[in-house]
## 1
Amino acid sequence: MRLITKARITAVAALMAFAALAGIATGQQDIGLLHQNLNESQSTAAFGIGKILDESSTASLTAAEINANPAAVVTLAKGLEARVVTAGVAAPNVDMMVPWPDNADPTHLIVCNEQGTSAPGLQAIDLDTGAAQTILTGITNCDGIRMTPWHTILFSEETSNGRAYELIYPLGVTGVHLDRSTGVFSGGTGDCAGGTGECHFAVRSALGRLAFEGFAVYPNGVVYYGDENRPANGTQGGAYFKFIPDSLWTGGPPISTLAASPFVSGDVFGLRLGKRVDSGSGAIDFGQGTQLGFGTWVLACDNCQTGDTNLRSLTPTLKLTGYYRPEDVDIDGTALAAGNVRFCADNTGNEENDQLWGETVCVSDGTLAAAAANTATPEAQLLLVGNPGLAMPDNIAFQPGRGNWIIHEDADTTYLAPHNNDLWDCLPDGMDEDLLSDGCLRIATLNDLTAEWTGGIFDASGQRFWVSIQHNASGKGLVLEITGWK
C-alpha cells in the first residue's frame, strides 16, 4: 500500500486545479504542460525566484552596446540581479573559476582563460575592483579548476593531451611561464629562492592526461573527472575517471609545500558500466547499449605519474563507458553532507548535426570511505535529458542550501531558429518514482547569439553566483555576480 501523505494530497489538489486551466476537464489534456505550469507556479517556493523567463532571447547586441552596458548582455528572471565584476579588464575567454581564499567570504576569483599558450592562462580577479592579475602563461585552453581541501588550486587543460596542475598561494605569485613540452615552470615573481614564482606550481601527472574540464574533489582527496571527447567511427566518446591518492587527506591546516599534496601519487580508475555475467558464455554486458546502471572502476594506471599516461588512449582498450563530450562536474552537496559520494556531470551532445540535445548524468560511489577504498559499486543514472529548449548542457553548479542544479547551455544558437543560451535552474529528484530532476526553469538568457555562459559557481550560502559570459561580441572578458535568490 502506498502511503498518502498530506504533501501528496496538496500536490494532487494543485494538479487538479491546473488540470482545469490546461483543458483536461474538456478532454484536451497535456500532462507535460500541466507539470511545467505547476513548476512555474512554485518558482518562489521551490526555486527562490520570482517570475521565470518564458523563452530564450533572440537579441544579439553589438560590441558597442555591450561595451556601453555590459550587464545588458543578460536578461534575468524577476528577483535576480546582476553586478558586473569585471568587463574589458580580464582575459577575453574566462571560463571556470573558484572563489578565494574560501567560498564563504572571498576576495578574489581564480579563473582559467581558455586560450593558447601566449595568452594569460590563469588570473586572479579582485571582486571589489575587477582588476585582473596574470598568474600564469604557457598553459593551453585552461578550463577545469577547483580549490582543494588542503587549500591549493587544482587546474587543467582542455585539450587531447591536457595535463592537471597544482598551485599554492595563488595571490603570492605573478607572471610565471609554463613550457608545455617539458612541463617546467619558470620566472615570474613569487616566494621561491631568488624571488621567482616557479615553486608555486607542480605538474600533477598522477591524474593522467586527457581533455579536462570539470573536477569533483572530495574531502579525502579522491577526485572524479571526465574526458571531453566525442565518439568517432565506432570508438566510444569520453570516459569518466577516478583518482585515489596513495596518501588520503585526513584534514588539518593548509599545506605549506606542494610536496605534501595528496596529488603527488596515486592510482586512476576508469568507469565501465555493466555487471551482468552471461551464465553460458561468461560474457559481461558492458559496451554500447549499457550507458546507465551499475558498473565497475577498472584500473587505468598504477602510479600514472611515472608514465605521464594519456588516459584517452586507454579508453577503448579498457572498454570504458563513453559519453558524448563530458563537460563540467560538480559534487552533490546533499549527498556529501550525509557522508556519501554522488557527483553530476553534463554530456553536452551535438544539437546542429545530430539533434543530440545532451544530458546530465549523476554517478554514485558509496560512502566516502568506500569510494576511497574502491569497494563501492558505482551507479550512473540520468538527472536530465536535453531537449530543444535546454540543449547542449555544459557547465553545472550545485546550489548550497536549496540543493538545486544550475545548468549552463552552450547550444548551437542559430539551429532551427535563433535562440540564445540560457541558464536553467533544475530541482533535484524528489520522492516520485523516477530518478530525474523534478523540473527545470529558465532563469536567465543571453542577449548575444555568439556568447555562452561558463564557469558558474556559488558561494557557500548559495546566494551569490559568479559566471563568465564567454565569447561575447565585445571580444573582452566579462564576469558577473548574480544575486537575489530568496
Note: Confidence is low (pLDDT under 50) at residues 1-26.
## 2
Amino acid sequence: MKLLPRRQFIRNAALTGVSLGLGTSAIWSTNLWAANKLKPSANAALIAVDVQNCFVSSGTLPVPKGEEVVPIINALGRVFDNVVITQDWHTAGHASFASSHVGKKPFETTQLSYGQQVLWPDHCVQGTQDAELHSDLKLPKAQVVIRKGYNPQVDSYSAFKEADRKSTTGLAAYLQARGIDTVYVAGLATDFCVAWTALDARALGFETLVIEDACRAIDLNGSLAAAWKEMTAKGVKRIQSSDLI
C-alpha cells in the first residue's frame, strides 16, 4: 500500500474527519467556530457611540477603562460596510451640567422640563479637545457622524432621540433610506448612551445587538444591571466582539 506524505495525510484527515487520535469534534471545532461567527450583511450598521476624549481616563467625565474599547471598535469597523459615529456635543452651560444648577453636585439629579435629569460634570463642550473623537479611533468606513446634546436645554443620550423623547437626530430616517435593518451598538457608556441607543433602535424596528466587550459602563447606583435588564426585556441581543472578529 502506498503511504501518503505526512502533510498530505494530515490535510486529508482534516477534510474527511479522521480523528488522528484527537476525536472528530477536536478536528472540526475550529471550522465550526469559524462557521458560527456572525457576518454582518450589507443591511447592517455598526454604531460607535461617543468614543470621545471626555469619556476616557483623562477626560472630564471618565468612564472607567473607556479607552479599552478603541482597538476593539477599530477591529469591528473592518467587518462592516456601514458605520455610524455619534458624538456628544454640548453647549457651554448646558442644562445637564451640575455647574448650571446652584447647589447641585455632579451625579445628583434635578427636574427639567422633560423629567428627571442626572447632572453631569461639564463635558464634551463644543469645539474643545475634550469633545473630539479619541485620536486612536480609526473608522475609515464611517459615512455619518451624529452630533447630539447641542440643544442647551435638553440632554441627549440616544443616537436616535433626545431626552425629551420628541426631538429626533435624523439617524433613523438615514438608516431606513439606506435599507439598514440591523444595528450593532458599541461604545460609551453601556448604561447610558449605548443602552438608550439600543432601546430606541429596537423600538424603531431595527434588529439590535450590543457588543458587550466593546462597551464600558459608568454604573451609577446599579445603572449597568438595570440597563442590561431593560435591554434584554426589549429584545436587544447581547454579544461579544469574538462573535464577529
Note: Residues 39-243 form a domain with the Rossmann fold fold (CATH 3.40.50.850).
## 3
Amino acid sequence: MNDLHEGFCGIVYTNVYTWPMKQLLPAQILQQIAQIQYMEPGKLCVIRQGTDGPYYNLQCREDGKTRTRYVPADQVALVAEHTANYQQFQNLVSQYATIIVEQTRAERAAGFKKKTSLSKSSSPKTRKSNN
C-alpha cells in the first residue's frame, strides 16, 4: 500500500516541480496561469487497499476545516492532474508576486534616490527675482 502511494505522489511531484527554473516575465507567467483550465486544491491519498485495488480520497482545507471527498477509481488520474494544476497555479502566482514586489521596491528605491539626490546639491539655493 505504501509503495503505490509513494509512487503516485512521486508522479505528481515530478509534474509540479520540474518546470523550467529560468526567470519568466510577468506577462509570460500570466499566460501560463490563463492556460490552466481545471484545478483542484488538496492532496490525493490512498485510504485503503481493496480487492479491486486502492481506494482514494481527496483531502483539502476549506473554511478552516479539513474536508475529505471520496474519489472513484476511474477519476483518480484526472483528480491527480487537477491537483497538480492547482500546485502549478500556486507556484506561478508566487513567482508573479515575487517579481512584481521586486519591481515595485526597485522603482520606489530609484524614485527615492532621485528625490534625495536633488535636495542634496552643493550650491545654495537662491531665489530669482521677477524684475
Note: The chain has one domain: 2-108.
## 4
Amino acid sequence: MRDRTRTVVMLAVLGLLAGGCQSLDRYAKPDRTATRPAPAKVSASSTGRAPAVGGADERPATTTRTTAPRTAAGSGAVPAPGQEFVERAQRLAQAGRAEDALREFEKAIEINPTLTVAYLGAGDIYRERGDYASAERRYARAAELEPTNFSAQYLHALSLQLLDRPGEAIRAYLRALTIRPGDFDANMNLGIAYLQVGEPREGLPYLQRAVQANPRSAPARTNLGAVFSALDRHEEAVVEYQQAAELTELTGPVLLNLANSLGRSGRYEEMVNTLEQLTRTEPTANAYERLGAGLFRLRRYDASLAAYRKALEIDPNHFPALNGVGVCLMNEWHFSDQRNEQARREALAAWRRSLQIQRNQPRILELVGKYQ
C-alpha cells in the first residue's frame, strides 16, 4: 500500500519538478521561473558574434567595410566633401584616439550629410564605448543612405539588438541577409533575436545556417541548442551543447541548459553529474534546484531535499525550490504511513510560501487543497 501511495504522489508532482529554472540569461538576472532558454549574450564589442561561452572578453574583428566614400558628382577621383575629415578620423582611430576620431567623423557629417562612411565610423565609436542609442542613429542613417550596403544594414540591426529592441532588429537583419544571405554573424544574431521574441521556430533555420557556415562556433551551437530546447527537441539540444563543449569550456548558464535537456531526455544520471560539476564551480540557486529535481528522479530523496534547501540558502525566494522542498517533505509524510505530521505541515508551509511569491501555480494550489 505504501509503494502504491508513493507512486501516486510522485506522479502528481514530477511535472512540477520537470520544469525548473533554466537560463542562458543575457543580463545574468536570476531566473526563477520555468521559462524557455534565453539566448546567449550578443556581444557589445563585436559585430555579431556572441562572446565565446568560455569567456566574454573576446573581441572579434569588426565587419569589413565594402563601400567607398562618395565622390562629388561628375568629378571622378575628386574626394567628396568631408572626405579629408574621414581620413583624419580613421588615422586617429587607428592610433587609439577614439574621442578625437569621433569629432572628425561628426565634422565630416556636418559638412556632407550624405557621406555614408562617416556615419559608419561614428557609429562604430559610439558602439564600442557603449552608447548604443547614438550608434543606432548613425547606423540607421547610413542604412537609409545606402540600402544595399551590407555593413550599414547589419550594424543597424546589431545596434537595435544591443538596445534590446529585437523585433526591430529582426527586420534589419532580414534586410542585411537579402544582400549577403550566407553571412555567419547575421544568421546567428537573427536566430538569437527570434529567441528573444519567443519565436524559436522562426529562428531555427538561421541558427542552422550559422552552424553550417561555421561548425566550430561554440556560440552558434549553444544558441542552436537553446532553440532545440525551446522546441522540446531535447535530444538534439544535447547534441549541440555537447558539440559546443568539445570546442570550449561551457559557462554555467549553458551547463544549466545542458542539464535541463538531459533531464527532459530521461538521462538523469548525466543530468545530476553535470549539475554536481556546476555547483562545485558556480553554486547558484538555479543549479541546486535543478540538481534537486534530478536527484528526485533518481529516487535519492534525502539528497534531493538537501539540494533544494541549499538553493533556498542562496535565494530564499526561489519558488521552484520551495515547491521541491514541499514535494520531498510530503513524500516523507507518505513514507511514514501518514504519521509524520511535522513533514506534512512543513510541506504545506513551503508550498504556501511559494504561492506568495508566484501566485499563478494552479498545480501547487491543487496540492495545497488536497493535503491541508
Note: Confidence is low (pLDDT under 50) at residues 1-15, 18-38, 43-75.
